[in-house]
Amino acid sequence: MPGRIQSIERAAAILRILATGARGLSLAEISRSLELPKGTALGILRTLQHVGFVEQDPESGRYRLGGGMLSLGTRYLDGNELRTRALNWADSLASRSGESVRIGTLHKHQVLVVHHVFRPDASRQTLDVGTLLPLHATAIGRVLMAFDPLAVPEEDADAVEAGGAVTLPSFTRHTVTSPAVLERLLDEVRENGWAWEVEELVDGEVSIAAPIRDRRGTTVGAIGVRGAVERLRGEEGRPDMEQVSYVRDAARAISRDLGVTPY
């Protein structure tokens, strides 16, 4: 069997690192991060530019992903049956809840956002399609973890408790980083059939999600809403149950479209 092609592996590594830099990266940053000679990195970048996968800012000289990558990503998402079946229901959920809606699936120990509907108001919002989110700090991620045995969060190797146990990455002071505490929360998700988190990924925001199942009853994704804590958290620190019902209704509707028998 032929071996791996090093130049393609390096090109893929450059594309991945550019995907993490919203403002673009300089040649020196790319070279240093991947431990590549500048000449090698520059040659690969120029080739990726030629095929439209990378763009270079004419003023700063920094590199970022090009439109060709967006086109490939869009084609991948268009072929995603879950996303295709869920489009109308996601729009309906955004209208009923008044909040932004995301649909996510499991991708390499993270949540891949395959669809995003903006909150139905005039506020400035950023499209999250294609974004990777942590499993343990999002409601969608917790749903996937609760019902999919393959959904295991990435541990933070740099954060070690006094007893030597590896903890989970923290995003705010509210993030649950203890695997033991998280497992108890996942038990609640399995019992309730839905998940929520309060300010664990973003300060001031709450997310609520429910599982989407296919015709075999397998959890293939989750749909959820995200919004301000004052809108989605009800009395006594509990979630607004009307919003929970909206989310679960949407999840059941998508599941029916995927072949699940109504219940």
Q: Write down the Rg.
A: 20 Å
Overall pLDDT:
86
Listing every helix as H and every strand as E from the N terminus to the C terminus, the arrangement reads HHHEEHHEEEHEEHEEEHH
Structural class assignment: alpha+beta
**What level of helicity do the residues show?**
40-55%
**Oligomer state of the chains in this structure:** single chain
**Low-confidence stretches at least 5 residues in length (pLDDT < 50)?**
none
Provide a count of the helices.
9
Major β-sheet strand ordering: 5-4-3-10-9-8
Pfam family, one: IclR_C
Keywords: DNA-binding, Transcription, Transcription regulation
Protein name: IclR family transcriptional regulator
InterPro entries: GAF-like_dom_sf, HTH_MetabolicPath_Reg, Tscrpt_reg_IclR_C, Tscrpt_reg_IclR_N, WH-like_DNA-bd_sf, WH_DNA-bd_sf
Feature tags:
263 residues, six-stranded antiparallel beta sheet, 9 helices, two-stranded antiparallel sheet
Overview of the molecule:
Keywords: DNA-binding, Transcription, Transcription regulation. By secondary structure, the chain is of the alpha+beta class. It contains nine helices and ten strands. Strands 5-4-3-10-9-8 form a six-stranded antiparallel β-sheet, sandwiched between helices. Strand 8 (195-198) and strand 9 form a beta hairpin. Helix 5 packs antiparallel against helix 9 (241-257). The longest helix is centred in the middle third of the chain and has 17 residues, at 81-97. It is globular. The mean pLDDT is 86.
